[in-house]
Predict the structure.
Amino acid sequence: MYCPEAAVLLLSTTVQGNVLQPFAFKSGTMAKMSKFEIELPVVPKPAKLSLSERDIAVSSIYGELYVMYLKHHSRTTNSPGAEVVLYHLPREGACKKTHVLKLNTTGKFALNVVDNLVVVHHQSSQTSIIFDIKLQEPDCAVNVHQPVLPARSIHPYRIPRTGPAAAPSQAPVACELYSSTWSVFQPDIIISASEGYLWYLKVKLQPTLNLLQDKGKLMDFLLRRRDCKMVILSVCSQMLVGDEKGSLPVVAIVFDKLNQVYKEYLEAEQSYTAAMESGPSRSNSSYKRPMRTQAVIDQSDMYTHVLSAFTERKGVSHKFIIAVLMEYIRSLNQYQITVQHYLYELVIKTLVHHNLFYMLHQFLQYHVLSDSKPLACLLLSLETTYPPAHQLSLDMLKRLSTANDEIVEVLLSKQQVLGALRFVRSVGGHDNVSARKFLDAAQQTSDPMLFYTIFRFFEQRNLRLRGNPGFNPGEHCEEHVAHFKQMFGEQALMKPVAV
């Protein structure tokens, strides 16, 4: 028996056929691997069991090579049914029996491996049983597995029939499933000899949502599948409908499972970037850019496909909506993933929509929502609805310490010109700020004394920096000088006073 994926040839070396010798091929060379023995069931003498080729399959599962032995039910023992025994075949070292898949039935079987799942076809019941060897943590040398899902039939297929051009086309004919003329090849091929068709077997993930009730186990199953993203997102949407009280712990488990995979990808990407930036070397030449699989569900995916629609759903209590949003943020923080500002914005908009301003105030006061410029701008826009939001925004900008320009703009837009000037002085930026910007804002207030005070401040600054109270042409303050003369007279220009 030959496995083209791993380029390994398996030979039987005894009459009973249960002592197997593998050979590995690579780059035109052949290497002899460790010989091993398949344990056959004990039967009374004089009868002797021999290993048949149809009871053995070789395939790669989760990147490891396995020899699968279909061990049929023995009438002489009290075993409940047949089982599939998996022998792990490493490139180096001894081959060991590692997994037993319990079929819990008897009859004729065939094996395929699809998307790292072992699929066992049972002819008499016309159903297939699916096993995932990674779904439980290994707790001993040989791990026993039950089917992941209830037995289900392969989806029906209709074979199109076309007659000659003169005759009308014939109606499609239903394909005979689990036929005795089927031949099964690894990893995922089924050939129907009687109908002359070859199929590739695929796994449909959508039906698993209703077949596997345990959401945590379902998520573990889906995260290992190839085309899982949209199914996972539909699970997330589905679990947010129904019993609110009982579902929050389940929501937390699912979010943690998703963010663990997300974090692993981010760390791998970070390591790769760091290795590339350090320059070419022998150690990082082997680094490969991490593949972003469909199992990586990032914040944008959750926001677009799940959370934004969930917050707009009718008939859901606002407490549950807020609890779910905060649970997702808690999970991101737990895995030290930087929370994107649009998630915080979603929380704030939801709180405002339900008039939960006291909760918004608490979230900001206790830094449940992390400071950011976009968040501060959003708070500013809420001032008409919730007046304290203005001060909360300024406090946030000040904490950021990189948003001094934004604070000045906010204060000037509110005609708090003296407040803006005091803030600039408090952060030591008063020697560099634009005089024109402040004089513009002061003039717009139509308050003569405020304009006088601001004008005098900048005259004093000019005198201190250049020894002359006048403005440079590059400052474009001619209009304001003319306005000052008109209001207070030209003689007032040369009398700078302290603010």
